[in-house]
Amino acid sequence: MSTNDETFQAVPLDEFIINDKTNSFQVDTKKGETEFMNGKYQVKQSSCLDDQGVGRASDYSATNLFDGRNTTFWQTPYIKSSKSGYQDGYTKNAYKNGKYVGGGKDKYHKTMLTDGTTVDGEWAEIQLPYKLILTDYFLQATTSPKKYAKRFPLEFSILGSNDGNKWVVIDKRNDKKIIVGKDMELPIEFTVKDNMFSYSHYRLVISNMFESDDNHSVSLSEWSLFGKRCMNLEGECNGFISDSTETLEGMSMMNSTIHLHNAINDFNEQYMKYIECNDNTLNPSNSVLNCSKKDMNKKEVMDKYKKIVSYDKDNNVDGGLIYTLQNVDFNQATSPEVFDASHNEITDMYDNDIQKLRNDIQTKMDYINNKKNSVASDINNAYQYNQMGTVALTILATTTLYYVFFKLNK
């Protein structure tokens, strides 16, 4: 199973009509193979220099990131940036020597992720009229004027969403090896690894730039996105498929079973290491197993767990592979014949592994239930989510283990 091999450039585009007042541009191509790209591309930003409000264009909006010109750029406010003095309510520069500190009261920007954490920094966002599986992206420094070239992002995140509210991290960078100079005329390319999910919203959040006294606001010339548009069980799309079909439960889930299975194995392996390494009977003072800090760190297990599933404050699934699989479109499935064949192959391939996981989990559950603190209430709370068949049963039991080990090691 793999994605199709046809990668294309999503933005910038060659033909579009830009609307500076609404921060958007429209695409209406007559080329059959690219008609799926037609529609409205909405651009948003945390802020921009000389933003005069709704219906008033700014020369420094994030729309400049997608116009295909190196002479224009997105720039965020800084103190006394125009004749009117402070911009957009900013009472101090949002960046100090390149590091994000926030632009003053109520101007500290946080983007909430599905796991409850945040990514802080000024941000630019684009909403596509279709869903894209991001594979690569380019960032172009501002070289006109050349003094802004060193405002190139050093620590930043690329986020994805399908509703503009629930965000997940697709790619995160903090690369001090990037060399940026005044003569930097070419964009820097970044490859996204192990991404299999499609999103219609993409957001670039900049947490740090290079350390410099002049780096008090973002200045960036271009953000190009490249990717693939569809995925199916055989890895072939036979051309681009319309994104108008409804979600079909089960088929899209089975399409990504291998990734879910690997995530479960990763969690179980990390969890077992954590239990063994922190057991004072088996490993007193870590003198027997000589475990690494990573093996003994509770956060490492939590991170593995959150890749499978995460919950909001109301105990609803809002992140991880479970959440994503529940929102994958039907166009990732092919004909019933192909689906049945792939389903049977996956079932045969992983039946033994799933049974082994069940046996391992039962052994752990027996051990846990002999402890002083009962986990019956946790099991009852988790059981209501048991709607996803054989693989989900394993995940739910694994999720319970997370709660348990968290209690046992407080």
What would your notes on this structure say?
With 410 residues, this protein is an alpha+beta fold. It folds into 2 domains: 8-228, Sandwich (Jelly Rolls); 251-408, no CATH class. 27% of the residues lie in helices and 23% in strands. The protein has helices spanning 251-255, 257-277, 293-296, 298-308, 320-325, 336-369, 376-383, 389-408, and strands at residues 8-11, 17-19, 24-27, 39-45, 74-75, 95-96, 99-100, 110-112, 118-120, 122-141, 153-161, 168-174, 188-191, 199-209, 219-228, 310-311, 317-319. The strands form 4 sheets. Strands 1, 2, 3, 4, 5, 10, 11, 12, 13, 14 and 15 form an 11-stranded antiparallel β-sheet that branches. A hairpin with a 5-residue loop joins strand 16 (310-311) and strand 17. The longest helix is centred in the C-terminal third of the chain and has 34 residues, at 336-369. Mean pLDDT is 77; it is low at 232-253, 329-333 and 383-388.
Largest sheet: 11 strands, antiparallel
CATH class of the largest domain: Mainly Beta
CATH superfamily of the largest domain: Galactose-binding domain-like
Indicate the percent of residues in helices. 25-40%
Q: Architecture of the largest domain in CATH?
A: Sandwich
SS element count, helices: 8
As a whole number of angstroms, the C-alpha radius of gyration is 24 Å
Shape descriptor reads globular
- Find the CATH topology of the largest domain: Jelly Rolls
Structural class: alpha+beta
Q: List low-confidence stretches.
A: 232-253, 329-333, 383-388
